[in-house]
Amino acid sequence: MSVATPPPPTAVGADLIEADGLVKTYRISRPPRDVLRGISLRVKNGEFVAIMGASGSGKSTLLYTLGGLEPPDAGTVRIDGVDLFSTSDSQRSQFRRDRIGFVFQTYNLIPSMTAAENVALPLRLRNESSLPLGGNRIRRRDVDDRVRAVMNQLNLHGLQGHGPDQISGGEQQRVAIARALVAAPALLLADEPTGNLDWTTSHELMSLLSRLVRTDRQTTVVVTHEASIAAYAERVLIMSDGQIVDEVRLSHMPATDEAIPDPAPLVARLRALGL
Amino acid sequence: MSGLWPLAWRSIRSHKLRAALTAFAVALGIAAVLGVQLTLDGLNSQAQAAQDATAGASSLDVRVAAGSSFTQAQVTGLGKLRGVAQAVPLYEKRVVAGPQGSGLQGLTVTLIGLQDGNVALRPVTVLTGRLPHRGDTANVAIDQGLAGALATPGSRALRVGDKLQMITANGPDQFTIIGITSDTGAGPGFTRSAVFADNAAMLGTFHLGLQTPMVALRLNPGASSSAVAEEVRGSLGTSLSAVDPRGAGIAPLADLRPLLVLATMLSVFIGAGVTANSVALAMLERRREIGLLRAAGASSAQVFRLFASEAVAVAAVGIPFGAGLGILLGALLVSHYAPSDLPAPPFSPGAGEILAGIFAGFGAAVLGAMVPAAIAGRTPVLDALRFSPASERQRVPAGLIAVSLLSVIAGAICFAATSSGVVALGVALFLLGVVLALPYLVPRIATLVARLLSPLIPTAPTAAAALRRTPNRTALTAAGLTVSVATAVAVSALVAGALSASDSWVANLFVGSTVITSPVTQRDAIATAIVKSGTVQMASELRIFTEPVQGTSVAIAAIDPTAFNQHGGLDVTEPGRDAAFAALRNGPAVLAPQSLETGSGWHVGAQFPVSTDHGVVYFTVAGMVSHSFPAGDGGEALIMGSDVARTYFGNTADGFDDLLVVPQGSETSVDRIAATYGMNAVPVSTIEQSARDALSHSIGVLLALAIVSVVIAMLALVNTLVVNARQRTRELALLRAVGFSRSQALRLALSEAGLLAFAAAIIGVAAGIVVALPLLHASASQGFVPQFNFPAVIAIVLVITIVVAAVTAALAPARRATSISVLTALRQD
Ligand SMILES: Nc1ncnc2c1ncn2[C@@H]1O[C@H](COP(=O)(O)OP(=O)(O)OP(=O)(O)O)[C@@H](O)[C@H]1O
Ligand SMILES: [Mg+2]
């Protein structure tokens, strides 16, 4: 890709995420709520990881901490060797803009922008930024080319001019993924990306993600509470009460795109844990 | 802004009403600054022009004591002083004048010499005809007022071409009137009863008894008038006065200026508050957007710029409207305040002033927007992402109440000061304290009121609870309203206090109930004739003239002490009335107005030398009056017995300018007898009314500014109410799902608007009362003590108007919020 060229990729198999001793306590409620209690984890470059757990177990908090949105009370997060929380807020913003893509459960899109404009947002932010670290400006035509390429890749062809309220929920989520990917980030983080979608659409979306991982070696972390969704990942971390209590490796066949992975082994493991 | 500008632009487009109201608020702020600024400038240049007209080319007026006169040698000597370019003597003579064929009857008029069409270097304004040329000894010009006064009973006023008879060295002599002059043109030294003749006639025909009371000096460029004045005293002695006629710079609306500035600043601040509020609302509605932008890598500076640029764009729209409105306002006010007898100055707003007004109004608005924009930029990303309006619950910043209390206390301490600047600072601090306390006050007062209203409006307590959940937004919305209502109430109290103080001034001044005023000084015989005509029960002469006293010219009112002692008039504060008036009868004594007591240290028992027809005489201050008759320069006159005045000042003190009478029978018969002598009968009540009018006229602009502030503040209220209604849509739908009727839901939304407006307004009324007291105190002067009157009418009208306006403004958005189907509303976030 000629635009938004990422730094030389970390070798496949090296650790992209290194999180150590993450602690987060919310003091608003009484007694204070320990949401993350000393979590450490590694995610390898090109890996597809799912985080599962009951509601309130701290999945979203962990994901936002890994993405540099929420500073932990203690512990460190390194992405590609950069210690996120030792940098300034604006440097962290810039890192997010260029190296991390986020997808949320709902309302991912800015309502006053068209689908294409939503997708182009990180590139536009980069052009608009006055920070000297922003690197070269990207020419408008290159932005358009890149947006078109990503949208085509996600089967969003023809929806460029539509507003968020003019496209379906599944399409909205794919637009959100396109936006997350447009700057060719090192890491894609998704919080319940299928939470508001029906079964068929959910699986279309997940197979899209796993294809990205397979073909582009796109490192991806997905938070979900559904085993059938987590089953698409290569590795599943199971959270309970602010801690990672188990880890399941799933082996996939050299699968075709349409294959729906079998959640049975995962379900069995969860049941064994009493979750 | 290549990346985010479309976002800002679309947000403006999708909130057209809010953008329009905000731009309007900015426009009003700019208009207020510009309008007041242009008005003051316009009035200043007008005053300047008026002063230039009265001073003419004279830089120094040298006068001698009453009765004495400069000699020709002295005039020549003055012309040779260092720094003096020209010394022009004023020739003056009192003569009896009448229309042709009036025998030796007539009025005492002042004959004044012209040199090249000027009087003592001042141009004379000619209404019709022209002035006598140099060397002309046959023609004269007369004053407009005199032309009327000289008319024989029942005939028309004298005109150009008529003959005028005056007593000269050769007995009665005829002159042709070739011009009518305007009484304002010839400056302060010249009486209203002037006849203008060329100096050739003065030095020839009228040379007997000719006086030279004054010499006007034109100075060389660069010469200082005070240095020349020093030289004049050095060469001619200290008994003369040398005064720079331009020295007494009177600034129009001078007393009001600090208050005007304060009120203007308030409207600018409130305009800034509207912008701040509107950015805060935009930020609230787009919290999720902020979160998404930040997650996608926008820096907090970028988010700040997004909101700031939106505010700047909206505020910029207000600029042309504000500038136009301000220029219009300035033009209107200048023509409104310009004295009708002065030529209207050309109204020419300078580019600098317009830029300054725009800079102030627009700059304040942009600064106001920066605060919420910065908060938007610094919102924690997760808070923004997780935010849902339905569950919004604001917390009041800790320590706010302490800052608020400190500010209120500091303000209260400043109230005790005597300097009006410090009191103004105190007012600002106090209001700031009140504004900072609003997050606590408004929800509490709303709750209290809601509880009282709950039997009538059952939804009120629920509405108050909604206000309690968002105290910060509620306070930001209420702030402008509270401050502007406080200003309006305080100004009204000030107006009411000043009006009643001015009433008591005029009411206690005159003896009798009608004043017969004359354009010329009338002879005593006319007073006797009026008394004998049987139209009046009592008549008392009043003569006002000026005399140099200790180097300055002082107005003296000669009255009949016996009449005042018997029939009232003049409010003697010390010693008793009897003692004070007795002293005036018995010798060289005066009563002084209290305004002189503070100003110049006059007090009972003080003595001061005055040069009179009988040499230097020491006059004693025998008593003080709260107010005396107005002197021409805006000050008040010293009071002297008329017999005493005649003894010491000769025929200067003869006759009368005003006759104070009690009518016998109908007022019209007094009118008729007054008209017979070319005079006017004016009831004292009319004088009172015109004094009131003049006062309310000038304070009116303050009240108008306060009302403008209220209007600006209402714009913020409307913006907030629209957002509140939208935000409550889901909550209202939930209530309807559990059985609320649509009209109940509507009433809930409306009572929230009404409660917010009422609480803001009522706090404003209370703050206004508190602020009015020190302001009244600061505006008091000796003898002018405005009392506090609660401006109940204004307060009630304001509160009702604001509440009704708020409920009306909330009606449309509340309807929309309650008419949408429950299902749709619940599906919305
Ligand atoms: N900003 C916050 N302030 C206080 N408490 C919070 C905040 N954010 C999250 N929490 C609490 O932390 C806990 C973990 O929240 P988190 O969103 O990480 O859970 P989750 O595992 O993602 O749950 P779900 O599956 O329901 O999304 C919850 O109990 C939540 O109430
Ligand atoms: Mg979650």
Overview in brief:
The complex is a heterodimer of chains A (275) and B (829). With 275 residues, chain A is an alpha/beta fold.
Keywords:
heterodimer, A: 275 residues, alpha/beta, Rossmann fold, six-stranded mixed beta sheet, 24% strand, globular, disordered N terminus, B: 829 residues, alpha+beta, six-stranded mixed beta barrel, 26 helices, 22 strands, 56% helix, elongated, binds adenosine-5'-triphosphate, binds magnesium ion
Query: Helix segment count of chain B?
Result: 26
User: Class by helix and strand content of chain A?
Assistant: alpha/beta
Shape, principal axes of CA atoms of chain B: elongated
The amount of beta strand of chain B, in percent, is 15-25%
Question: Can you tell me about this structure?
Answer:
With 275 residues, chain A is of the alpha/beta class. Chain A has a single domain, classed as 3-Layer(aba) Sandwich (Rossmann fold). In chain A, 33% of the residues lie in helices and 24% in strands. The longest helix of chain A is centred in the C-terminal third of the chain and has 18 residues, at 199-216. Chain A is globular and about 50 Å long. In chain B, α2 (16-55) packs antiparallel against α22 (684-727). In chain B, the strands form 4 sheets. A 6-stranded mixed β-barrel of chain B has the order 2-3-10-7-9-8. In chain B, a hairpin with a 2-residue loop joins β8 and β9. The two termini of chain B are 30 Å apart. The interface between A and B is medium-sized, with 35 and 27 residues. Adenosine-5'-triphosphate binds at residues 26, 28, 33, 35, 53, 55-61, 225 of chain A.
List strands and helices in order, with pairings:
The complex is a heterodimer of chains A (275) and B (829).
Chain A: E1 15-26, E2 33-44, E3 48-53, H1 59-66, E4 74-79, E5 82-83, H2 89-99, E6 100-103, H3 115-128, H4 140-153, H5 169-181, E7 187-191, H6 199-216, E8 219-223, H7 227-230, E9 235-240, E10 243-249, H8 264-273
Parallel strand pairs in A: 3-8, 3-9, 6-7, 7-8
Antiparallel strand pairs in A: 1-2, 1-4, 4-5, 9-10
Chain B: H1 5-14, H2 16-55, E1 60-63, H3 72-79, E2 84-99, E3 107-114, E4 118-119, E5 122-123, E6 126-129, E7 139-143, H4 144-149, E8 163-168, E9 171-181, E10 194-198, H5 199-203, E11 211-219, H6 225-236, E12 241-243, H7 257-285, H8 287-295, H9 300-337, H10 351-378, H11 381-386, H12 400-415, H13 420-453, H14 460-469, H15 471-507, E13 514-522, H16 524-532, E14 536-549, E15 552-559, H17 561-567, E16 572-574, H18 577-586, E17 589-593, H19 594-600, E18 607-612, E19 615-625, E20 638-641, H20 642-649, E21 656-663, H21 667-676, E22 680-683, H22 684-727, H23 729-737, H24 742-779, H25 792-819, H26 822-827
Parallel strand pairs in B: 3-10, 7-9, 15-20, 17-19
Antiparallel strand pairs in B: 1-11, 1-12, 2-3, 2-8, 2-11, 4-5, 6-9, 7-10, 8-9, 13-21, 13-22, 14-15, 14-21, 16-19, 18-19
The structure holds adenosine-5'-triphosphate and magnesium ion.
Adenosine-5'-triphosphate is lined by residues 26, 28, 33, 35, 53, 55-61, 225 of chain A.
